[in-house]
Amino acid sequence: MKKTTSSHKISKVLAAAALTGLLALTVTGCGGSSGNDPDTDTNAQTETTAGDSSQSDTSSNNTDASSESSAGTASSDSAASAGAASPADGLEGKWVYVYTMTTSQYGNEDPYDYVTMATDEYAPESFFNIRKKDGKFIADYKFSGFESDIKYYGNELIMRNEPAYDGCETSWYLEFSDPFDDLDEESHKITLLDDGRLFDVSEYREEAYEDYEGYFSRTTAVYLRDDSPLLDDIEELRYFDTVTVSNAVDLLNSIQNNRRIICEAGKYNFSEVIPREIDNPKVTTIYGTSKHKLTDISNISIEAADGADVEFLINDAYEPVFAIDNGTNIKLTGITAGHNVQPGYCSGSVLSFDYVTGLDIDNCHLYGCGTYGIEASYSYDINVTNSEIYECTYGLLDLSQIGVANFSDCVFRDSSDMSMICVNGSYGVTFENCIFKNNNSMSYESCSFVEIGEYDKVTFRNCNFSANEYYTFSNREVTLEDCTADNNHAGFNDLIGKSGTLSKDELLALYDETLAKQKEKDDKYHSDGLLDQLTLNQMAFEDFDMWDSLINKVWAYLKNTLSEEEMATLTEEQQAWIKEKEAAIKDAGADFDGGSMQPMIEYAEGADQTQARVKYLIDNYVRK
User: What does the DSSP 8-state code read for residue 445?
Assistant: First the structure.
């Protein structure tokens, strides 16, 4: 396994970052050994600190810094004096928020670490604007997020001649003055690393008592100058280092947060991995099986090397080839995966995901005899692009309790025997520019090509269906928008025919009709106090479905009437609105999570958001 640091964005400091003593792993950018690779910690530290004698002895370094501070200053607390040089002189300017690194630990338990990027959903908005006036550092600061809204303007920064925290590479920090004793309780220790990153560090500690073992957390918000070229591709900063692997053992041992893993060409057979070869708490090995489940992982990209044929496989028909339980911001690129068993005997899917938020699959090829190409549950924000699922023995996809799943430019082919697309308890499932061909759902009359739950919504946009066999295309209504069909059932061809674009007059008439239906429904809500929850859920779904269907028709009309430039601008707007809508739906249902009212609340919010958007599009684009 070969490990390298990110070439131009994360310096040796971040790759080697770890807390000493109390914490086994953190990403702080200061001293210590790397926590990223349990199999190569020593090598990683040596590689990332080569040529940096200041980090060769962290303990000695801290002692020297402490001694220097005591001998060289009358007091460790002072304001920067006029005309005097300061180690903080490089702080002047505007600083843009990039990411937050957090480590928390209860007692002697293993620490829990995670990173929030500025590009993540629900990420905070923050900046520093620091200037020097009369020898004093003055800062404007804003932080909005995590239920906080903090703003300091024109606040003096006070120099402290000591490290911001144990193991920090700098021996100083600045903090906000508090002349009126009215700032938030959490202190901010601001320091500037040699690699040009501004750190805003805060710590929280609860002391142990009786049966309580105590708690410690450290949060480090990281900023870059507003003219830094690294901001041109801020997403690349998500990965602190890069590891290259060539076999299944090294791949599993390399799984760590905030890492890019490059797979060299070859077959990665997880059935050949011996459990004792795995030394990684992120990997759970199920003894007696070939299953190696990745758990509690975030910000990981697993990619095939350029031009390399990389294949993940197992010899066990009863387990998934690759499984993740509880993850955020996971990417799989250029991977072929499947079961190395006789077709027809599988009961495990190819890829399995539980409780994953932010999943990107690109240019992957998933083959049977796996039951489904992708099986996912309780997951959010799934994006599958330019990929292929084929020769599976149950169906193509099994999605349960999913919020937003987009499949674009994918091919789904040559699979059987049951329902090809199974969706249950999910919303926002969309297929765009996809091809479905030579699939068969006729083993059981109870199966349909698409099988969805009572409140589920599935949309096919610009898709082609060719030579598929089934008794019924869908057990419930789905949206077919600008789709085409070859050699399918006559009934399906009728459905395709109904998905054509409306004229302006037809669209405006349908809009007026939908408004009238909504008023009628609203009157029923308010007049009938005896409706049970199941009925209310159904009515909320019908409202959402009605407006969602209309916005799709509006969009189809606009695609045929706006110029290419206008449509490109509006599409960018629309994509931003979709994210805002889905976030609003998720927020609305959060307080009712798992309760019988949750579907009603979420669908009602979705209906309101979509109705408002339809009105905007009608007024600003259709009527003009």
Answer: T
CA distances from 297 to 293, 348, 353, 466, 583 (A): 11, 22, 12, 39, 22
Q: How far apart, in Å, are the Cα atoms of 229 and each of 233, 236, 247, 269, 282? A: 8, 12, 35, 40, 33
Fold of the 284-295+311-497 domain: Pectate Lyase C-like (2.160.20)
Which helix (H) or strand (E) segment holds residue 389: the answer is: strand 388-390
Q: What are phi and psi of 314, to 5 degrees?
A: -140, 160
Show the tokens assigned to 607: 């209906």
**With contact defined as beta carbons under 8 Å apart, do 264 and 295 qualify?**
no
Three-class secondary structure of residue 471 per DSSP: coil
Domain spans in the chain, listed from the N-terminal domain onward: 8-236, 284-295+311-497, 504-622
Are the C-beta atoms of residues 424 and 404 closer than 8 Å to each other?
no
The pair of three-digit structure tokens given for residue 511, joined into one six-digit string: 């809009």
- Which residues touch 615 (CB under 8 Å, ≥6 apart)? none
SS (H, E, C) 10-56: CCHHHHCCCCCCCCCCCCCCCCCCCCCCCCCHHHHHHHHHCCCHHHC
The phi and psi torsions of 611 (rounded to 5 degrees) equal -60, -45
Q: Is the peptide bond before 456 cis (omega within 30 degrees of 0)?
A: no
Q: Determine which helix (DSSP H) or strand (DSSP E) holds 328, and give its type and residue range.
A: strand 322-333
Q: How far is CA 156 from CA 78, 175, 179, 225, in A?
A: 12, 8, 10, 20
Q: Cα–Cα distance between 243 and 607 in angstroms, integer?
A: 46
What does the block give as tokens for 577? 């609105």
Residue type, 137: F
CA dihedral of 30, 24, 224, 327, whole degrees rounded to 10 = 170
| Fold that domain 504-622 belongs to in CATH | Substrate Binding Domain Of Dnak; Chain:A; Domain 2 (1.20.1270)
Per the rule left: phi > 0, alpha: psi between -120 and 50, beta: everything else, 561 is: alpha
Whole-angstrom distance, CA of residue 482 vs CA of residue 313: 37
Q: What's the token pair of residue 189?
A: 């220790």
Please give the backbone phi and psi of residue 117, each rounded to the nearest 5 degrees, phi first: -90, 155
In sequence order, the 6+-apart residues with CB closer than 8 A to the CB of 593 are none
What length does the chain have?
Answer: 624
User: Is 504-622 in the same CATH topology as 284-295+311-497?
Assistant: no
139-153: pLDDT as tens digits = 999 998 766 788 889
What is the distance between the alpha carbons of residues 290 and 319, in angstroms, rounded to a whole number?
7
Q: List pLDDT tens digits, range 551-608.
A: 988 988 898 899 989 999 999 999 899 989 988 898 888 888 777 788 889 889 999 9
What does the pLDDT look like over 452-505, one tens digit per residue? Answer: 987 788 999 999 999 998 888 988 888 888 888 876 665 565 565 555 678 888
- Cα 577 from Cα 574, distance rounded (Å): 5
